[in-house]
């Protein structure tokens, strides 16, 4: 089922949570809403779910306008950040809830409900825990109960708010892979909110990067990392170094040093230069490069992570060196950014 | 070596498995001072609760069994028990409904004067009960503010058992509101949203999700309001009219006995009330333990 969000805006008092959002999720797609806290990602998810209503704009499922439909009628599965399990009910009763509250005419028979619950618990690998109470389960198990409960009503759309936020790293990783498989197997259209870029890049078909209530970029994970659309995305996703430079005549100038970068038609004037730690060439001091002094060098992955100080900048640069003889602290080096990107300042 | 109550729980098998360095029966706990605090608790409860209450039984025992039954279970006493316990239960039930409503409004909504309303809830605690009784009588008397309109409708409040219920509703209200409030505040909004996302309407959400979650707290409020109502004297005697067999509550009957210097008779009635109250509160407590256990195992 496709989701179309057009022209959505939402204010809370003087605070603009969302400003004019357009977004489309194709049927069967797994979408991640990625952004720092306060970026509006959760508000957008709640508006799609029908837990919140927009000030302007529309939400449509498969072309049908559902903007004014409350969540009760939208038929979406929603997994809450803290799971929101019913503490006084057993796991099985939690999962069955969506079926047992149906009107008598559409409610399945008791045996049928029991069979469905059994099936769902099997699906989330909690087969023998149906009689337990939520308080008796671990975090990862509760998360899966929440998922089974949401899936019981057979939604075509699954919405998840920080689904892995409260879990430890190992459980997180397993659940991620498992959730992706589940999504594919059931043919769902899913959107999940996260502030964890690794999670978004690993799990989603496309990542929606948000900041201050607007969408900065919607792309496949590789493009988000390799071809960021804005300074914010470059900074927020992956490691990066930023340098305030001024652009003149196709070259970037920093503190009396000039180096060649692809200016991509950036107008002359102040700009910010971004480059990844591994997208640099480290050369000897004196060459046509940015002079720096190594302050720290430690092994990392296959190479060496170097922190180097340059004049006129408080924070050290983070650089990766993959050669045999890594520079040592105190060494003077030249830094030549290879695949740097310029974004106009301000 | 201190043999504390905690060591009673350890079995012989546990003892054998324990390393020899630690002597049998001494359980190490991160929470020190169990012995002394438990001991003091028992001592204090004896001093404040048990000793005075046992005096009631000792005193009434002086009557002899036959006489005790005569006084404690006389027709007039039985009628007063029925009124005291019945009216207290009715008032506690009324308070459970409307106290829950008030707690709901206080917790869920922000409105100007919320703190003022919250403070008003506590007024029945602070007010001398006699003041409450006089005020209620003035309002509900046949020529009172409300009474004059109720009278033509055939509703008599003052000087009837209904008046007793009204007075007990008044004094019992804060118990329910204050018991339910924190639990309701603790119950996340997301649980309701989860119910809605699964297709549950407001009624289903309330009866199947909210009510069971706050049930134990509501029961606590009911029990407290009920207990308060059973023993209530000051506010009731003004509005009740105190007709024997009709609107005479047990505490008043006890005072009446005392005024006639029939101390043994008074303690006989008191003993019956005490045993009945204790039994009822015990049952309510057991229900609570049972329902709490299911939630936080």
Topology at a glance:
The complex is a heterodimer of chains A (346) and B (297).
Chain A: E1 3-12, E2 15-25, E3 30-34, H1 41-49, E4 56-61, E5 64-65, H2 71-74, E6 76-79, H3 91-100, H4 110-123, H5 139-151, E7 157-161, H6 169-186, E8 189-194, H7 197-203, E9 206-211, E10 214-219, H8 221-226, H9 231-236, E11 241-248, E12 251-254, E13 257-260, E14 269-275, E15 280-284, E16 290-300, E17 303-309, E18 317-321, E19 332-337, E20 341-344
Parallel strand pairs in A: 3-8, 3-9, 6-7, 7-8
Antiparallel strand pairs in A: 1-2, 1-4, 4-5, 9-10, 11-12, 11-14, 12-13, 14-20, 15-19, 16-17, 16-19, 17-18
Chain B: H1 12-17, H2 34-61, H3 65-72, H4 75-108, H5 114-126, H6 129-140, H7 147-150, H8 161-186, H9 189-197, H10 202-231, H11 234-240, H12 250-259, H13 263-295
Helix pairs in contact in B: 2-13, 3-13, 4-8, 4-10, 5-8, 6-8, 6-11, 8-10, 8-11, 9-10, 10-13, 12-13
